[in-house]
């Protein structure tokens, strides 16, 4: 039962028909199969039916059991006090997510809406779509232990676990500014060599190579993106020897910014920053992938081993 791995009262799409979705009960068991109205499809991120003219009507008028899924008191999400633009899983209050700019989170219908009498901080304010400093245990879908290391809480990765960021499944990169920031500490780990790489952050999953990734081997950090409508990657490699701080931490950043026709791809490790100047013309957004963004895992990569901290993923310029 898929609901056993999801928060109570969660909705999730039917894999065979975008008009249909499934509802989990408060006991984390499958409760019902439901349908959006004709001309609408289920949006997993918004947890509701949205207009989708490309979604075929497979249910018929007798089976349209819901116009807009509502969660009410069963909503697994809650707004961040004092910042209505952000929300969090109730069972994991330390990891917050952001609504699109100018929208606020409405717990009554469990989705982001235009604010009703709520003043949202300037739409120019940039907040990360995902951020964690591993200060509290992570939520149900992740199996990364949080430990104290050098006097601070960090995520300990052993090569088998990963942190899953579902906000970037099927979307998330069609933006004028995308950025990943984090700190990496190898501790006593020796990264792979001989052509094998270790995943730091990737969306390589579902037996499909990534559209964005940060990986590493024994010599380099690698930063890679695939653009929409392109099968050729753009990649930056930065040798990391000597770029760690006094405590062994590498400050790592990937940035992809611009607009249709002209983008800039930049990578940073410690004090060294490189701008992509390779043969691939950067003229489109980063491509989407079906599956989520992962920290510590990637299809065809070795799992990350070491410590990670201060992870922020942005869809705007910080």
TrEMBL record:
Pfam families: CBM_14 (PF01607). One of its GO terms (molecular function) is chitin binding. SUPFAM superfamilies: Invertebrate chitin-binding proteins. Residues 1-57 form the Chitin-binding type-2 domain. Gene3D superfamilies: Chitin binding domain. GO terms for cellular component: extracellular region. InterPro entries: Chitin-bd_dom (IPR002557), Chitin-bd_dom_sf (IPR036508). This is Chitin-binding type-2 domain-containing protein.
């Amino acid at each position: 039962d898929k609901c056993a791995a999801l928060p109570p009262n969660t909705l999730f799409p039917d894999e065979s028909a975008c008009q249909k979705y499934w509802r989990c009960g408060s006991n984390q068991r499958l409760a019902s199969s439901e349908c959006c109205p004709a001309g609408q499809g289920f949006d997993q991120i918004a947890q509701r039916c949205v207009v989708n003219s490309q979604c075929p009507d497979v249910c018929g008028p007798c089976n349209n059991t819901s116009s807009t899924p509502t969660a009410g008191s069963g909503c697994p999400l809650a707004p961040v006090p004092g910042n209505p633009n952000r929300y969090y899983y109730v069972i994991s209050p330390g990891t917050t997510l952001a609504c699109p700019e100018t929208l606020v989170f409405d717990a009554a219908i469990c989705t982001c809406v235009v604010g009703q009498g709520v003043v949202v901080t300037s739409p120019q304010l940039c907040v990360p779509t995902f951020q964690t400093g591993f200060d509290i245990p992570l939520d149900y879908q992740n199996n990364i232990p949080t430990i104290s290391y050098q006097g601070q809480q960090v995520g300990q990765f052993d090569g088998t676990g990963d942190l899953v960021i579902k906000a970037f499944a099927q979307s998330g990169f069609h933006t004028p500014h995308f950025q990943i920031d984090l700190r990496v500490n190898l501790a006593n780990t020796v990264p792979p060599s001989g052509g094998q790489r270790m995943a730091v952050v990737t969306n390589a999953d579902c037996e499909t190579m990534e559209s964005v990734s940060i990986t590493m081997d024994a010599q380099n950090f690698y930063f890679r993106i695939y653009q929409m409508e392109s099968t050729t990657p753009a990649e930056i490699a930065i040798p990391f020897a000597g770029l760690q701080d006094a405590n062994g931490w590498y400050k790592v950043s990937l940035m992809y910014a611009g607009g249709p026709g002209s983008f800039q791809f930049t990578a940073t490790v410690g004090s060294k920053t490189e701008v992509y100047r390779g043969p691939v013309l950067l003229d489109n957004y980063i491509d989407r992938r079906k599956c989520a963004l992962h920290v510590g895992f990637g299809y065809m990569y070795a799992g990350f081993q070491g410590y990670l901290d201060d992870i922020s993923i942005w869809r705007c310029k910080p």
